[in-house]
Amino acid sequence: MFATYRTAIGVLLFAGFESIAGAQSHPAVPPGPDNFYIGTPAGWVHPKTPWGDPDLQGVYPENFVGSVPMQRCVGRGRGGAAACDPQKAFLTEEEFKAAQTRFEKAPDQFKNAEQEGQAGRQFLRGVTDPEPPQRQTSLIFDPPDGKFPEMTLEGKKQGEAMKSGWAMAGEHLIFNSYQDFDLKDRCVTHGMPASMLPFHYNNGIQIFQVPGQVIIFIEMIHDVRIIPLNDNTPVPAKVQQWLGFSRGHWEGNTLVVETTNVKPGAMMVNSAMPGTPQIHIPTSDKMKITERFTRINNDYLIYEIKTEDPVVLTHSWTARMPWKNDPNYKLLEYACHEDNRMVRDWITVSRAEQEGRTGPNVKVPQK
Questions:
Q1: Which residue, 14, 66, 250, 336, shows the most beta carbons closer than 10 Å to its own?
Q2: Mean pLDDT (whole number) for 132-151
Q3: 275 burial level (CB within 10 Å; 0-12, 13-18, 19+)
């Protein structure tokens, strides 16, 4: 798949640097599976920044691919796991049109909840982002069956010791300390690579460029990645950050970003999203992430992210997806849990449950 893709649009990926004066127009690349059925028009010229770098700037809300399961034939199985083909990477044209029709005819659940006086459901529907259907059947393309790789024994051991406010199948959650919550529960970070994957809300990702740097602003938990270009300065292993240290370089018009020195502690993927493994997947300080950003026309780029972690995983996995630029998307302040009440209140209720005190007489302490 990857070799075919890079051959099919090799002019876009590996044509080499173009000066502003010598910018070249590209031949048409018809829509097909190698470009997520998003073509490149004939004569299209890749935009450049004023200093001559390929221009990737824009706002790319990831809910555009939020309907796609992480794994193929898992979770939202595209017709059910029993009928799902793990080697089928894309829906047929007829299947995709049927999915679009269902999406367009789906009832407005926000309005329905409002009319029924269901304030809680109305709130939840109001804060989640729309997730239009896509032709791809999973975010993961490697392994070829679209499945998450097996974990190592050490990875399983660390995962079983992790705590989170997101319950796994059959898990009964008990909270006695802030340490019983994961980093995203506590509004610290979603970590890497999870921060670069879709979620149910606050999906905005904005790319800025300045000479020598690319900046990626992540709406979720207001994280910012500052990526130096062509900087080979070594970073000592003991120096770690939640999102790691990233270094970028250009391969033709493709931005390649390598990230290491990730501070362990965050989950590798968002367990709340469809098709994600229903186990806690940790990260280690040996994790390496390689991303590729390739613009294919004025509105779309293709994003690829490969994750390697020999401590946690038996082999690597790679996700690929189209990102659509939406200049009308508004990135909002991410206030997380207002007034920092959530963690405290969940601990109070959990302790009451453990002591057998449930119901309306449970008192939640006030400020």
A1: 66
A2: 95
A3: buried
